Known about the structure:
The protein contains 15 helices and 13 strands. It is α/β, with parallel strands linked by helices.
Amino acid sequence: MNADLxxxxxxxxxxxxxxxxxxxxxxxxxxxxxENPYPLPTELVDTWLETLRGAELNRxxxxxxxxxxxRLRESQGVPADSGLLLGNGSDxxxxxxxxxxxxxxRGLLTVEPGFAMYRLIARFCGLDYHGVSLRExxxxxxxxxxxxxxxxxxxxxxxxxxxxxTGNLFDxxxxxxxxxxxxxxxxxxEAYHAFAEDSWLARVSEYPNLVVMRTLSKxxxxxxxxxxxxxxxxxxxxxxxxxxxxNINVLTQLSAEFxxxxxxxxxxxxxxxRAQRDSLFAALQDIPGVQPYPxxxxxxxxxxxxxxxxxVFEALREAGILIKNLHGAGGLLRDCLRVTVGTQEENxxxxxxxxxIMAGRDLARAGGL
Length: 369
């Protein structure tokens, strides 16, 4: 009976989708989710807790999060003439954009491989989804993108900068062509801005159809679930109509504002992660059969030249290390795995385990001959 009710009332487009899966990571070295591996320094914890002591949990939070917005404008360099909207992570903002621009015949266009939530949110919000393949080296195929934009006339174009899961920054001139050619909004998703050392934020005022999104998750505040978008105030005023009241809770507001007052701590951590990223990349280059791709994010995509991504992923998991298996996506991600940059100790454990697994595979193949 329940199945019949679901079949009758749940939209067919929703029934066809699969929920975003987050794997269990208990007891494992967690290098699968692009998190900052460093906690809040001990010397700041007591001060942070004292800040939370004054939280009025019996009252609703500031619906506009005015103090936090002011701190974000100052610390993130948000242009004074641009609108600013906060979300419960970037995912909520992607959903708000999709809901605001959805309509019969309207579509969302992005590159593939790209962030999985663009496709998922487009489909459950009623937008047509259009994916344009990257080149073999994961760079933008600008002619193909411009042709797709001209043909599809998308309401939304999403470009992650750096791209997830490939880690590379797209050519700025090519991105500018896309912004100029697009009839609707172009959203530059800068989730990994803390590691990229490049941004489009300062150029929002130049283009009426440009939106820049960021999250504080990757810099070390993933547990707070805070994202923000910057765009022309006229756009933000419309998107704000879809934002549910009090979407940023009081603990997130206080904690994020506190963290941004100590931004230098997180800047030091992200600088350390960038250095560890370079060391990890070099270590992966030295493992036979492993091809890592240069990254401007806090993760590294790598391909196994002889295949076997599923087996290597499971072997790493058995060794106590969880990374991301992308082989199932197929296409350009065939035989690919992705590892988050962890602490020096976590990275070393991962490299040791991968070396052992790859050497064992080589021996097994040699024995088979």
